[in-house]
Structures are given as structure tokens and as C-alpha cells.
Design goal:
The chain is of the alpha/beta class. The chain folds into three domains: 119 residues, Nucleotidyltransferase, domain 5 (2-Layer Sandwich); 102 residues, no CATH class; 112 residues, no CATH class. The chain has a five-stranded mixed β-sheet. Strand 4, helix 3 and strand 5 form a beta-alpha-beta unit. The chain is globular and about 80 Å long. The relative contact order is 0.08.
Length: 355
């Protein structure tokens, strides 16, 4: 016992690193294996800054693990650089409000908290790599979703404008279908820069919004074709399954990322998608409740697949009828289907070398 006191283990060469990421800078701190804070420093969030950061931490000692906040946003390029340097990176959740209320908030404090999360094993999730075809699909998918939202807002605005337009203009447009309405409004007479009458101003406004709708429609269709080509090339096994279309396949790929081997079990994938039942038992009551966590967009994709199969797949319909006869509610059946679909999808997303 006394010899251990006199000759304590040398832990100075092993360090655990934490990074608090921001748009323009990253604050880095590292601790030793006993959790003692050693040093911290700020680096620019550029390629040169990433190189300097890696040099700084690797010369300080043997880097055991690096905890990074915001791996899916401000820290995504840093994570790629750290992976390329052969360093072990884990995703760290930002401190909750209660923790910040008691311990304060600053970049050095957040970086040290991330380092301690990496040290204690509180943070274990491997972040997405953000460097492959799934990342390309994600960019296109986000752009398409934005164009769809903008187009829906423009359509609502156009129809609202027609409701409040002068009667002689509204009478010619109120009975048209959407496609005919957009075309008719886009063909309204051009007006001078300063319309002198109410009708001229309304014509100019309707034409502007209708042309925006047409442009957004073209943009959305172009992005959809690009996404379809990428998904068909890189994940044909998903599209081959009944009820899985391009949009749902793209979302499931985005949820998993370019390194699907980071999700080791189908139970972990179910938790990631928010379809794993959670224990809610107490005393003599034994039950499970719905998981409200996880990626809600992935949960929506699984729901879409389940509803599609309930409508058109005979085997799924037979399963529904059997569970209804057992006393299950339609909502319970959909939850069970989403869990089963998650198991199926996980098998399709596993890398070929996975045992």
C-alpha cells in the first residue's frame, strides 16, 4: 500500500480531449486519466486551425479519446479531420440547463465538460463521418425539403391574394385548378415598375408569386431526380423493398450516415429511430410506453412505410387482422410494425463485412 503511495502510476502521457465547437472557432481542453484539467486553447474552425489543433493535442500526450460537441453541425469538418488523423472521436451532448445553472457557462467550461464525458464513458456514440455519398444525399434532401416548404407557402399566399383581389380579376381565376391557376397568373400582363392602378398592382403581385411557384417546382423536381439517382446507385436494396420509396430511403440513409457500422445492434437502431418500447412499469403494473426520443424524421419514414404496407401489402394486412383479433389497438399495431420495419431496415443498412 505504501509503495503505491510513494510511486503513483504515471498518467501524464494519456489525455482525454473535449471540444466545444462554434461557427468560427473551436475551444479545446484536455484532462489526464484522473480527470485533472491540464490545459485549454482556442483554434479557428478552418483547415489550418484543425491541423494546428491536432498537432497541439497529439504533442501534449497520448490521446485516448476526444469528445466533440455539435458533430452534426459546427463540428462536422473537425470530426472528419480527427478521423483522418486516426483519433478516436465520440459525440458529446451539450450540457443541460440544470448543469449550466449550477456550474456556469463558458467555452472553456464546456470543453472541459466534454473532456470529462470522454474520460468517464458518459459519451460513447460514434459520430457520423460526413464524407461520403450519404452526406451528398443529405445536402440535396435538405435543399429539396426547403423548396417544398417555400413552394407551399407561395401557393398559400397566391390563393389568399386572389381571395382579396378585385372581383373582375378574381372572377377569371377562382374556378381554375392549381396548375391552370399558376400558369394563368404567370401570364398576366407585365406592369411598369410603379403600377398606377390597383388592378395593375394586383397583376404584378400575382405574376411574381406565380413565377416563384413555377421556379420552385422546377427546382424541387430537379433535386428529386438527383436524389433518386444517388439512392438508386448506393442503396438499391432499400428501394427493392415494398413500401420504401426514394424519400423514405434517403431519410433512413441520412439517419444512419456514411459509417453505418457505428450502430452495432438493431436495438440501438430502433432507439435511434424512436421505435424501441421503453419500460414504464411500477408496482403491479407492467407495461411499456412509446419512445418520444430519437430521430423524428426517421420515425416518420418508418411510419410512412408502415401505412403504405397496411394499405397495399396483403401480408401486413393479415398481420393487422390477427393482432386486432388479439385485442390490440390500431395504434399499437402501427408501433409494432415500425419496430419490425426498423429491424428489417437495419439488416439492409449493415455493411457487407458485418458478421
Amino acid at each position: 500500500m505504501s509503495s503505491m503511495t510513494e510511486n503513483p502510476p504515471d498518467v501524464s502521457t494519456t489525455i482525454f480531449v473535449g471540444v466545444d465547437t462554434h461557427k468560427d472557432t473551436h475551444h479545446v481542453a484536455y484532462t489526464d486519466s484522473l480527470g485533472r484539467d491540464l490545459d485549454d486553447k482556442e483554434f479557428p474552425s478552418t483547415a489550418a486551425g484543425h491541423a494546428d489543433l491536432i498537432t497541439w493535442i497529439t504533442t501534449a500526450g497520448t490521446v485516448e479519446r476526444i469528445g466533440v460537441e455539435g458533430t452534426g453541425s459546427y463540428g462536422s469538418t473537425l470530426v472528419t479531420a480527427l478521423h483522418n488523423a486516426g483519433l478516436d472521436v465520440v459525440d458529446v451532448d451539450r450540457p443541460d440547463r440544470r448543469s449550466r445553472r449550477f456550474h456556469g457557462k463558458s467555452d472553456p467550461l464546456d470543453a472541459r465538460s466534454a473532456a470529462r464525458a470522454a474520460l468517464t464513458g458518459k459519451a460513447t456514440t460514434t459520430p457520423k463521418s460526413h464524407d461520403g455519398h450519404v452526406e451528398a444525399i443529405r445536402f440535396l434532401h435538405n435543399a429539396r425539403r426547403s423548396s417544398i416548404k417555400a413552394r407551399a407557402e407561395a401557393v398559400t399566399q397566391l390563393k389568399s391574394m386572389i381571395v382579396n383581389a378585385p372581383e373582375d380579376i378574381r372572377a377569371d381565376l377562382r374556378a381554375l385548378t392549381d396548375a391552370a391557376l399558376f400558369t394563368a397568373c404567370a401570364r398576366l400582363d407585365a406592369t411598369p415598375k410603379q403600377p398606377s392602378t390597383i388592378n395593375a398592382a394586383v397583376h404584378s403581385a400575382l405574376r411574381s408569386v406565380a413565377e416563384r411557384i413555377q421556379d420552385l417546382t422546377t427546382e424541387e423536381r430537379t433535386l428529386a431526380r438527383q436524389i433518386k439517382a444517388l439512392v438508386a446507385e448506393h442503396a438499391p436494396q432499400l428501394l427493392a423493398q415494398f413500401g420504401i420509396g426514394t424519400d423514405t430511403a434517403a431519410q433512413l440513409l441520412i439517419t444512419v450516415g456514411d459509417n453505418p457500422d457505428r450502430i452495432t445492434t438493431e436495438a440501438a437502431f430502433a432507439h435511434l429511430c424512436g421505435v424501441a418500447p421503453i419500460q414504464a412499469s411500477s408496482g403491479r403494473t407492467h407495461r411499456h410506453r412509446l419512445d418520444r426520443g430519437g430521430d423524428r424524421q426517421a420515425n416518420r419514414a418508418l411510419y410512412t412505410i408502415a401505412i403504405t404496407r397496411l394499405r397495399s401489402d396483403e401480408r401486413t394486412q393479415q398481420y393487422r387482422d390477427r393482432r386486432l383479433a388479439e385485442g390490440k389497438t390500431p395504434r399499437d399495431i402501427i408501433r409494432c410494425l415500425k419496430r419490425a420495419i426498423a429491424r428489417e431496415v437495419f439488416g439492409l443498412l449493415r455493411p457487407p463485412h458485418h458478421p
